[in-house]
Amino acid sequence: MTQQIQISQTGGPDVMQLVNQDPGAPGPGEVRLRQHAIGLNYIDVYFRTGLYPQSLPGGLGLEGAGEIEAVGEGVEFLKPGDRVAYAGGPTGAYAQIRVMPAAPLVKIPDDINFETAAAIMLKGLTVQYLLRRTFRVQTGQTILFHAAAGGVGLLACQWANALGVRMIGTVGDAHKSELAKANGCAEVINYNKESFVDRVRELTNGEGVPVVYDSVGKSTFQDSLDCLSPLGMMVSFGNASGAVPEFALSELTRRGSLFITRPRLFDYVAKRQDLESMSQELFAMVQQGKLQPLIGQRYALADAAQAHKDLEARKLTGSAILLP
């Protein structure tokens, strides 16, 4: 038997229950994975609340790292004893042992530990596709990145700095401001003390930025558009403050023929070769010391509900992990 978090209905953090289950044997194309660390991400809240639908009862979590215990028929690129990590479905990462598809798994280099792997897979691959594929930033550019002290944001600070990109980040308090600066963010705006639109315009001599990366959503969307230079791109990749309200496409024209995209990681890693190449670049950044993920919080698996409460209250800095 193994412990895992399960939900039978959608709702607040208290719908999560710790249950005992037999994970069973892996079927064709599957593995049984003993997890050593589990990633905590805001997308988990979306599944818990029902914003992203799934069959119930069901599990939560899309990121983890551990050791292969058994492989099913047809799994040829993995074997028992392999150290692996993943950032992909189906949900069910909140577990000590789980049976899951082999497809999203990648091997971890020997010099990267399980906790680091669980903290960087989803967030690190997100930063990789945002900065290297959705809008490929160039040395010398100035960009705007919201929630700069979060798990994704701090990795973005470091990655942008390594690429010679001037990153303007937004945060909600002085502590998070210092944290973002310490991780390579060139300019930090406390949105509770000043208008980030006015400050971005000031920092760019009125020109605006070529790209805004926004995971906050409802509360920042319209103002983010006003930070863009003509032909700029709005990258809306999350909605922590709520879904972006409907708006007229003419708003993009009025601001200078702007572009907008709503990307998600799972489309970028749908092909095995892309997953492998993106993971290799991510791991190389860690091995070279260019990315040093901050694990700001560790929770026991049994305390997953409290972890979600802290996540939704924006109390977390850096990455947070669950320990089974």
From TrEMBL:
SMART domains: PKS_ER (SM00829). The keyword Oxidoreductase applies. Its EC number is 1.6.5.5. It comes from the Bacteria. CDD domains: QOR2. InterPro entries: ADH-like_C, ADH-like_N, ER, GroES-like_sf, NAD(P)-bd_dom_sf, QOR-like. It is an enzyme of class 1 (oxidoreductase). Residues 1-28 are annotated as: Disordered. It catalyses: 2 a quinone + NADPH + H(+) = 2 a 1,4-benzosemiquinone + NADP(+). This is NADPH:quinone reductase.
